[in-house]
Write a structure and sequence with these properties.
The protein has two domains: 2-135 and 327-360, Medium-chain alcohol dehydrogenases, catalytic domain (Quinone Oxidoreductase, Chain A, domain 1, Alpha-Beta Complex); 143-300, Rossmann fold (3-Layer(aba) Sandwich), CATH 3.40.50. It is an alpha/beta fold and 365 residues long. The two termini are 19 Å apart. Helix content is 23%, strand content 26%. Helix 4 links the parallel strand 9 (194-199) and strand 10. The strands form three sheets. Strands 3, 4, 5, 6, 7, 14 and 15 form a seven-stranded mixed beta sheet that branches. The protein has a six-stranded parallel beta sheet with strand order 10-9-8-11-12-13, sandwiched between helices. Residues 177-313 form the Alcohol dehydrogenase-like C-terminal domain. InterPro entries: ADH-like_C (IPR013149), ADH_N_2 (IPR041694), GroES-like_sf (IPR011032), MDR_fam (IPR045010), NAD(P)-bd_dom_sf (IPR036291).
Length: 365
């Protein structure tokens, strides 16, 4: 028997309104509950997982309060809050998973969780033996690193050949989980002539510029941001690839910098998560006049290619092209600090993280 703490949805969020993190308020968005879980509760094929690490992702806002059923069904009051996580199996009725296995999957804001269908939850086993730290499987070997991999190797159509090197990239949200890996891939693997890395505040700019001499950080919080961005790129019509994690005004500005036949890869829209009006794409005409390629992606579309991608990411880490120690921010949520899980997640929207934001629920044995 395991006593598990679980964060559930208390009140359905109002579209366009921020979540309510005052947990004493009857109108609070989330509520912490405790439940008892045991092997007796498992259905055939199910597993009981003890959570060690929780991934914090902007996309969770859409998982919780979905406005597009093509993406997520949303969460009903009383249901657990979904999150990707890493944990250890405590009990199993599935021949593919044994007690003691470490697994990554779509779990919840919980200290322990029953997963009825590991396939639906995209569960896979991970090992402590081939990584420096187990949490790497949520950062440089996790879903956000997979997103970065597919941006370059599939959707941008890049290859590790000389003719694909020496390009100019703009990367928005460059200090975030996906953006920080994209910056490293552009710089170290595809030998970018220049990476214009958009980040928020002087500290974040310093962080993205620490990846290499060819990275030019631009502070979107600066009063001179528009001019700074244009200057960093060397003017309009100078950029080959724009990897956008933000949307909104930055997307509008970014497309003006692209060359004719340039490429936009859209993998996030964090600027509009609290204000849907910021989702508006005002500069759409540039897609036509510049004959741009504009491509969105969800990493789950490429499940069949995950093993190949994981192998490549591991190779890049070993070669020093990806730096795990500089790609994540870990926050203590052990014991009583589990009460702060929703607040830690909300820190994404205040920019508290450098790289992947991970909540530490329990240290591995």
């Amino acid at each position: 028997m395991v006593s598990a703490k679980q964060w559930v949805l208390k009140n359905t969020p109002v579209p366009g309104q921020p979540f309510n993190f005052n947990f004493e308020d009857p109108e609070a968005s989330f509520e912490l509950k405790e439940v008892n879980l045991s092997a007796d509760d498992l259905k055939e094929g199910g597993i009981l997982v003890e959570t060690h690490y929780i991934s914090n992702d902007p996309a969770q806002k859409f998982w919780i309060a979905s406005v597009d059923k093509n993406y997520s069904k949303g969460v009903e009051p009383g249901e657990n809050i979904p999150a990707r996580g890493l944990g250890k199996i405590l009990a199993s009725k599935n021949k593919d998973y044994q007690v003691g296995d470490y697994v990554v999957g779509k779990f919840c804001w919980t200290t322990a969780v029953i997963v009825d269908d590991p396939v639906e939850a995209i569960v896979h086993k991970v090992s402590k033996d081939d990584v420096g730290e187990l949490w790497w499987h949520l950062s440089v070997l996790g879903s956000t690193a997979l997103t970065a991999y597919f941006i370059f190797y599939k959707y941008a159509g890049l290859q590790e050949k000389e003719e694909y090197c020496g390009k100019t990239f703009v990367i928005s949200g460059a200090a975030g989980a996906v953006g920080s890996v994209c910056t490293q891939l552009a710089l170290n693997v595809f030998k970018a002539a220049k990476v214009i890395a958009i980040a928020g505040g002087p500290e974040k700019v310093k962080y993205v510029e620490s990846f290499g001499a060819n990275v030019v950080g631009v502070d979107y919080k600066s009063d001179t941001f528009k001019d700074d961005l244009k200057h960093a790129a060397g003017g309009i019509n100078t950029v080959d690839y724009f990897i956008d994690n933000v949307g909104g005004e930055i997307l509008d500005l970014g497309v003006t910098l692209l060359k004719v036949h340039g490429t936009v890869i859209a993998c996030g829209s964090i600027s509009g998560y609290n204000d849907p009006q910021k989702f508006v794409f005002k500069n759409y005409s540039a897609v036509i006049t510049k004959r741009l390629t504009l491509r969105g992606l969800l990493v789950t579309d490429d499940l069949a290619e995950f093993p190949k991608a994981f192998a490549k990411l591991a190779q890049l880490i070993k070669a020093g092209d990806l730096d795990p120690s500089n790609s994540a921010t870990l926050v203590d949520a052990i014991g009583e600090k589990f009460e702060y899980i929703p607040v830690i997640w909300s820190g994404l929207f205040q920019g508290i993280n450098k790289g992947k934001l991970i909540s530490v629920v329990k240290k591995e044995d």
